[in-house]
Write a structure and sequence with these properties.
By secondary structure, the protein is of the alpha+beta class. Helix 2 crosses helix 3 and helix 8 runs antiparallel to helix 9. The mean pLDDT is 96. Bound molecules: adenosine-5'-diphosphate and magnesium ion. The site of magnesium ion (MG) has 3 residues, from helix 3.
Length: 383
């Protein structure tokens, strides 16, 4: 069923209006990939694709949740039994509820409806958007507000404990603290955040490859473990503390694989610093070089790219700066998911078509790039 609004969906499912509606964006990451769990620097942007969650206090002893993605009848969650369920999308919600309960929040039962125009499993953090929306729903119902940082930490913990993904803090913080027109540089060590304006003539084009390679399962955790081993060998608390010279000097002790993992991490954090300056001065040539170097490092040193991502990035650089391309790279965890391209606004439509036709030459399915912009983080839009 298609609804015009989350309010309308709620009324149709439960026969009464919601008391609050939460709007929770997805995110892209301009640069700083696979370094949030290494105390590194990242540069995400909340985008104008959202998960919406409409909510009202419940009538009975159980909560009911309905998602337009799965349809059917609303599913029930008992507050006495907030435990992970095998392979269920409910885990993101149950996880947040369980952790709120554990920190002492008295949770009311509720009915909720979820609608979304954010692709799932596309590296655009629909999971963090869903967790954050759940936390904000509970804040709306209880009146107990959290700071964006505390909310992000709780949602990250839910992802660790209930979805089994040992993610860093970037996604949840980007979803919760993004600002319209800005990228959000986050120092993942102390969570210091800096807003960096995105130039007006710069459009963000997102291309979801619509593939998720099963190879990715468990690889995320392996990358984290590799980086931990590398920092042990190098004698630093985290790779944030390592300079490139230290990594180079430890090459023999690290061995090829750990050396490459560490080189990615250290060089990527440095690229974020340079990208910040380049964005502030609209130095698009440097932006393009840094994004390409980031992609190549993720592909060759961190081994998290795939053919679909590589073809799209290559096609974007073939389009070239003369026609308005600033830069392009994979975004998110990899093994599928999406690329982002920064492009002159008046050339975005042409680049979109160029990427579609380049992709068609290599793969059997279509991609449908969309132009997006930086928006505010998650918030209650109706209460
Ligand atoms: P990403 O966060 O990049 O989108 P993940 O695999 O981390 O990818 O999270 C995707 C999962 O989040 C989905 O498989 C689903 O379980 C859950 N999810 C996201 N949005 C929704 C939604 N609107 N309704 C139900 N489940 C959702
Ligand atoms: Mg996710």
């Amino acid at each position: 069923m298609k609804f015009n609004s989350p309010q309308q969906a709620f009324e149709s499912v439960y026969g009464r209006p919601p008391v609050a509606v939460i709007q929770s964006p997805g995110r892209i990451n301009l640069i700083g990939e696979h370094v949030d769990y290494l105390d590194g620097l990242v540069m995400p942007v909340a985008i104008d694709r959202h998960v919406h969650m409409a909510v009202s206090p419940g009538n009975g002893h159980t909560c009911r949740v309905w998602s337009a993605l799965s349809g059917g009848e609303p599913v029930e969650i008992s507050m006495d039994k907030l435990e992970p369920r095998p392979d269920s999308w409910l885990n993101y919600i149950i996880g947040v509820l369980a952790l709120l309960r554990d920190r002492g929040t008295r949770l009311p039962t509720f009915d909720a409806v979820i609608t979304s125009d954010l692709p799932t499993g596309a590296g655009l953090s629909s999971s963090a958007a869903l967790e954050t929306a759940t936390a904000l729903c509970m804040e709306a119902l209880t009146g107990e507000e959290m700071t964006p940082v505390n909310r992000a930490r709780l949602c990250q913990q839910a992802e660790h404990d209930f979805a089994g993904v040992p993610c860093g803090i970037m996604d949840q913080l980007a979803v919760g603290a993004g600002k319209a027109g800005h990228a959000l540089q986050i120092d993942c060590r102390d969570l210091y955040m800096q807003l960096v304006p995105i130039p007006d003539d710069m459009a963000i084009l997102v291309t979801d490859t619509r593939v998720k390679h099963s190879l990715g399962d468990g690889e995320y955790r392996k990358r984290r473990e590799d980086c931990e081993k590398a920092s042990d060998i190098l004698g630093v608390d985290s790779l944030r503390d390592a300079a490139l010279a230290l990594v180079e000097s430890g090459r023999d002790r690290l061995g090829d694989q750990l050396f490459r993992r560490a080189r990615h991490a250290v060089s990527e954090i440095e690229r974020v610093r340079q990208f910040n300056k380049a964005l502030e001065s609209s130095d698009t040539a440097t932006i393009g070089k840094l994004m390409l170097a980031s992609h190549q490092s993720l592909r060759n040193d961190f081994n998290v790219s795939c053919d679909e991502l590589d073809i799209l990035v290559e096609a974007a650089y073939d389009f070239g700066p003369e026609r308005g391309l600033f830069g392009s790279r994979m975004t998110g965890g990899g093994f599928g998911g999406s690329t982002i391209s920064l492009v002159r606004r008046d050339a975005a439509e042409e680049l979109k078509q160029h990427l579609q036709s380049a992709f068609r030459k290599h793969f059997k399915h279509e991609v449908n790039p969309f132009i997006t912009q930086a928006v505010d983080g998650a918030k209650i839009i109706e209460a």
